[in-house]
Amino acid sequence: MEANNKAAKQGMTRRTFIKKTGITIFILTSGSIAFRALDQGVFSSSSGPAYEPWDISKNEYDGPLALVADAILAANPHNSQPWLFKVTDTQIELFADEARNLGAMDPFRREMFMGLGCAIENLMLSAAYNEYNPTINYFPHASDPNYVARITLEQGSKKESALYKAISIRHTDRGAYDIERPIPAEIFQHIDNVIEEKEKVKLTWFKTEEEKKLIGDLIVNATAAIIQDYDMSTSSNMWFKENWDDLQESRDGITLDAQGESIWTRAMGKILQPLSDDQNNQFWLKSTRERHTATAGAYGLISVRDASDNLERMLAGRAWQRIHLYGSTQNIGMHPLNQPNEMSDREKYLGTKEKFGMELKKITGDSSWQGLFLFRLGYALKDTLPSPRRSVDQVTF
Ligand SMILES: Cc1cc2nc3c(=O)[nH]c(=O)nc-3n(C[C@H](O)[C@H](O)[C@H](O)COP(=O)(O)O)c2cc1C
Fold first, then answer.
1. Which residue, judged by its Cα, is nearest atom 1 of ligand 1?
2. Which CATH number covers residue 109?
3. 353: three-class secondary structure by DSSP
4. Which of 73, 148, 283, 325 has a CA that sits 20 to 30 A from residue 165's CA?
5. In-domain check, residue 150
6. What residue ranges line ligand 1, CB within 6 angstroms?
7. Are 132 and 33 within one domain?
8. How far is the CA of 292 from the centre of ligand 1 (A)?
9. Residues 157 and 190 in one domain
10. How many degrees, rounded to 5, is the angle at CA 375 between CA 147 and CA 390?
């Protein structure tokens, strides 16, 4: 009897022990998941110092610095923010920050100069809003290719514009678009009209299913080629910010929050260990195939007369910024997909047979224009989140 009781007691003790251990492991695991979730910003998307520049209601800058505060919110390649501003009371000088180039992804700095053009467009819209009459002088010293523009500021009258107001709500939208909701013809017309320098910058649309298939396949194939190229893949992935603290510190790069994923996927992505370059590449290829190209409402191609000319690249960048700002006023998602151009530049750089270069020439369709920048657009199914930005103080001198 006593032996039986002892055995029962031991059994109970063992069961209780197992139960208690289970609970303890559960608490510890949940605790460490919760800690990692907190640590990796699962509950803090779009907040912290790296995102403060987007909150223009807290913007305490006035005079020319207010213009820089708007310029730094511009689109730019891989969120590398390749810009430096020298500011006085009467002028702003813009310099390319060559150290922030994308390496093998942008060997001829095509994207870097486009991004600088995007910043100039925001700056010019902001100048008009902030009662300046701006005059721009591109490449003031021909011998210095990194001294890209001098903007002289005279007193003017306030010019409000819908494009200016969209500066702080424009974000690259990498999510799925609504394939049931076509873009009305008048929207394409309005977008055509926001391009100012039409004799230098041309926009071509690809709207039919056949055209979209052609462009979509080209983009997917170029993505597959990039991830097979070690230098390109490494240069691209180094801008991917996997760690919340790093992101808040560097305030640049591509983030998980900006990938258009569901809250759940973003949370899991932050909690789990960082992905390897190979995993990132496969994730990118899959989203390019199954989401970006599969749900594109249409594609646009921006061309210039000479794709190697830095001024023309900047004018194309200014046009892209205006197009994207206009899209934001209409709640239309926009997303550059420049893999074919990136591969075309890579072929030229390596001196290999032109495959993507030839494809781009075919889709540009007119030998007097050279394709520079591809993008997709459509009605987004989810809200987009901002990307980090360095502060005005970090980019001015
Ligand atoms: C010249 C240029 C090329 C770009 N190419 C791509 C691209 O191929 N794929 C992509 O997802 N985003 C691309 N982008 C978008 C940038 O990654 C984006 O502007 C940057 O990360 C900042 O984010 P934001 O636009 O939401 O502020 C490009 C932007 C520029 C200006």
1. 111
2. 3.40.109.10
3. coil
4. 148
5. yes
6. 75-79, 111, 114-115, 118, 171-172, 174, 254, 258, 335-338, 387
7. no
8. 14
9. no
10. 45
Alpha-helical segments (H) within the chain: 2-39, 64-71, 110-129, 162-165, 185-194, 209-228, 230-237, 244-250, 263-271, 277-287, 310-329, 339-350, 356-364, 392-395
Per-residue model confidence as pLDDT tens digits over 181-203: 999 999 999 999 999 999 999 99
Ligand 1: nearest atom to the Cα of 254: 21
Q: Which structural domain range is residue 128 located in?
A: 60-167
User: Is there a single domain that holds both residue 264 and residue 333?
Assistant: yes
In this structure, the answer to whether residues 158 and 251 fall within a common structural domain is: no
With tokens 């949940």, the residue in question is: 30
> Alpha-carbon distance 380 to 181, whole Å?
10
- How many separate domains does the chain show? 3
The pTM of the full predicted model, rounded to 2 decimals, is: 0.91
* Residue 268 domain flag: yes
Same domain as 361, residue 230? yes
How far is C-alpha 323 from the chain's CA centre?
Answer: 15
Backbone angles phi, psi at 142, to 5 degrees: -55, -30
User: Which residues sit opposite 300 in a β-bridge?
Assistant: 205, 375
- 360 occurs within a structural domain: yes
* Token pair for 47: 């907040």
- pLDDT tens-digit series, residues 140-193: 998 999 999 999 999 999 999 999 999 999 999 999 999 999 999 999 999 999
SS3 377: strand
